[in-house]
Structure prediction request, 502 residues.
Amino acid sequence: MIVTDSARTAKELLELQSIGVVLCGLDLGHESGIEFLEVVHNDWPTTQGLLMCSASDLPTLSAFEPTYGILNTPWTRHDLNEQLLAAFQRFELRRENIELRKLAHSQAQQLENMSHSVDAKIAHRTQQLLNAKVVWERTFDAIVDPVAIISSEHEVLRANLAYADHSQLPVSQVPGKKCFELVAGTSEPCEKCPMTQGDSSARGVDIEARHNRMLHVWSYPMPISDPDERYVEKDSFVCYYRDVTEERELEAKLHQSEKLASLGLFVGGVAHEVNSPLASIKLLTESLREELVDNDDGLEVLHDIEVSADRCRRIIDSLRSFVHGSAKLHKESIQVDEIVEEVVRIFIRDYGTTAQIDCEIDENLTPIRGDVALLHQLFRNLLQNAYHSLPKSEGLIQIKIREGSKNDETNRSFVTVIIQDNGSGISKQNLRHLFEPFFTTKSENKLGSGLGLSICHQIVTKHRGKISVESEVGEGTRFIIELPVGEATGKFRLADLEEARV
Prediction:
């Protein structure tokens, strides 16, 4: 306990050390006890004040808001002890509250600092993730070939720009769509889909894509799941596509070249063996002609034999020219309608067909300049193809020949020959390969070599014409041949074959 009779000294003592309770009277000389205790409360808030006063002073004190305790005089030691004990308890409580507030403030500051640090780390990690996402997307989009992540249900989850370009959609509209719709333009999964082919995923497969392209596709399984298996997605696949259209075409051409080289050796041998008997046939028909000079039917048969032998020789020559990539045309002024009529007549006689063959021919057709034997071979091949596709009953082949102008750069006129049947038709998949050498859909017992239509295409091309085909499976096939009209020097008649060749 420290005792002093000066308020100033008391304040100095309060500055020097922590004092729990200050006890003073109402009159301190230059300063009242109330003023002194107010100063103590403001400057040393933990220190508790006790003011000693009599009962007569209480009305005066009621005008002030007390920040201190009151000890009424006269007081006993018991009263003093109770007041001091209560004051010291308030002092300890106040000091603990201040310490707790300081501690709480300190911890709040630490939490705030930690929060700022966590926020900064989160922002940094978020920026890192965004940067990694941008780098990954740019890497993904930098690949010039289509790449996509596809679910096991064929749904595109993510794709690069090349994939979107192939699909002709903005990349943002690709996710959620079916891969076979975007890549192949079909309503069903691709027949050789690598995601369903097991081990073939590793080596890749060829699929037919949109725009008549061929894509080689690899797929790599990519299961997505977390360690605790709380969240599991269906297995996905990374699919990588590479356009191999030109590569496959080059491979096919190389394969065809190898076939043609082998065929060239074979054709050379056949030509050598066949030309000799054909020459004998020609000589024998000349001898028989003299004996059958008065037999019209016999002369007509001899004429057909001679024409057929000559056609055989020209077919062998054209096949040899086809193999070697060159063909010499023996151009003459020709009536296309007469060649077609002759082909139909001989075809019916050779095949004995019961199929109906209708011909619709315009009158006064302008002659063309072309090779008789090659055009004969052209129309016979097309007629044979139509015949082989006909149903067993009610088979119909329609032949239309008309003349019309073609609105191209040269404004040339064309004689158009249309050969249409009601046969089995050709699938879209086979239609694109129809004029390729060695491509055939005929069974082995029908002896399909795959050269007929490719030779037809070459014959029309050599005549500077155009051949096209329209077909639907089960609806029949329609071949359209356009042959340019040339300057005529007179009509060519098949019946005057000898005179025309002089």
User: Anything to note?
Assistant: Confidence is low (pLDDT under 50) at residues 444-448, 487-502.
